[in-house]
Amino acid sequence: MRGKLQPIEIGIDGEGRIARIAKSIRGGVREDLGDRVLIPAATDLHVHLREPSTGPRVESFRSGTEAAALGGVTAVADMPNTEPPIDRPARVREKQDRARGELAVDLILYAAVGPQTAIESLGAVAGAFKLYLSPTTGIEQPPEEGSVPSLLARVAATGLSLTVHAEEPLAFRTVTKLDSPIAWDAHRPIEAEQRAIAGLLPGPPGLRLHIAHVSAPAVANSVRGSGHSFEVTPQHLLLAARRDDSARFKVNPPLRPPAIRAGLWDEFRAGRVPVLSSDHAPHPALVKDQEFARAPSGMPGVETTLPLLLEKVREGELGLDVLQSAACDRPARWLGLSHGRLAVGERANLLAVDFRRHRPIQAARLRTACGWSAFEGWEAVFPERHYRDGQLIVADGEFVGARNGVVVRPDYARA
Ligand code: NCD
Ligand code: ZN
Fold first, then answer.
1. Per-residue pLDDT reduced to its tens digit, 184-242
2. Element containing residue 200 per DSSP (H, E)
3. Domain count, the chain
């Protein structure tokens, strides 16, 4: 029965796919998970693993995908705002080469859409597209407003999905002292998201459009009305802008005031948000711990996103079905991947969760090479086991798998 916990057995075939789901299955090698809860592993549509990079980099494919595996994430979509940016086919291929033998989980490679981008030829090699409408880490010059409709039409013709960072810089406000998350919110207001989205919608026919990191209920409503996809992050769901917080809490779009944050949480709980993503942006602590105005935006999260939200399930504040849909099922469908559901034919990418075991997040114990977390001390439920294609890759907080994750491209027909 959908949406209810029940005792089941899952039969996995030689290819690592779910072959049967029943009360009892005869034969085969059996593994007893006791009364742990079995859920599909998550897919994270929005991570920055920072390869390639020229500056002080902390994360890599190796550390970032291992962090994902430990956080219950079985596939990550890696953003293209690297140094140099992934904006031509040769750079996608170079990234594929770098990833070989490094990946603890599967990887989808985004390509960046810019005024000079060879969108058509990139569409043949990349896994998805990303468009930045405002400057952010690694992106200084977003495309001019007038050029956006034709860029969208060209992306639509490739058949790949497009994720948009939707903040309109013309709606940013001058704030004399950019010294706290509250000032950052005043500088990049919710209207900047609303204006960017108004300029994108409805979009050309056939465009698979997804709006990244929606920070407020009003923005969620605008996108939902258009029928397109969108995501929220744990930082916008759980953290509000506070006067005393440091630049570790500086993100784009900004953290919002408490009432907005609470409203976004209500939307999420009600199952009105299609996708949960981390926007894992692993800036070194050294560059975050400087003057607020100068520090880069973004915070790490791929390892803690699902555990933080599983804790909300444990506390009775969130339905497991809502979380599973937003973290596991919809992001996999969005990328054309066949996992994320407990269903016959899906890859057996699964998590065993013990809801009696929760512990505070300690950045020093995380596998992400970032070394800090905005959620230090928050209670979390880390999945105890993680299986990929039926093989155990995480057991009791340790990565025990092989580095055999692959760079995948969407198969919308199969998913
Ligand atoms: C991201 C980063 O650091 O790459 N930062 C952020 O604040 N979200 C870039 C981005 O997603 O805008
Ligand atoms: Zn991002």
1. 999 999 999 999 999 999 899 999 999 999 999 999 999 998 999 999 999 999 999 99
2. helix 190-200
3. 1
Indicate the top mutation candidate among 86, 251, 279, 302 to test ligand 1's pocket, ranked by most ligand atoms within 8 A of CB: 279
Q: Does 328 reside within a domain?
A: yes
CA atoms of 188 and 378, how far apart (whole Å):
27
CB of 293 within 8 A of CB of 278? no
pLDDT at 1: 45
Q: The domain containing residue 97 runs over which residues? A: 41-340
Decide: 369 and 61 in contact? Cβ < 8 Å: no
392 in any annotated domain: no
Q: Are 297 and 252 in contact (CB under 8 A)?
A: yes
Whether 59 is in a domain gets the answer yes
**Alpha carbon of 376 to ligand 2 centroid (Å):** 21
Q: Can you say how many angstroms the Cα of residue 33 is from the centroid of all Cα atoms in its chain?
A: 28
What is the C-alpha separation between 359 and 378, in angstroms, rounded?
A: 8
CA of 280 to the centre of ligand 2 (A): 7
CA distance 9 to 279: 34
**Residue 294 CB neighbours (<10 A):** 9
Distance 252 CA to ligand 1 centre (A): 6
CA distance 230 to 210: 5
Sequence-ordered list of residues with C-beta below 8 angstroms from that of 56, at least 6 positions apart, any chain? 284, 286, 287
Ligand in nearest proximity to the CA of 250: 1
The CA-atom distances, in angstroms, between 350 and each of 29, 151, 210, 234, 391 are 17, 37, 25, 22, 9
- CATH of residue 217: 3.20.20.140
pLDDT, tens digit (0-9, with 9 covering 90-100), for 259-278: 999 999 999 999 999 999 99
Which residues touch 233 (CB under 8 Å, ≥6 apart)? 46, 213, 276, 277, 278, 279, 301, 305
* Residue 106 designated active-site: no
Per-residue pLDDT reduced to its tens digit, 373-392 = 999 999 999 999 999 999 99
Atom of ligand 1 nearest to the CA of 138: 4
The three-class DSSP label of residue 404 is coil
Count of helix runs (H) and strand runs (E) in the chain: 13, 17
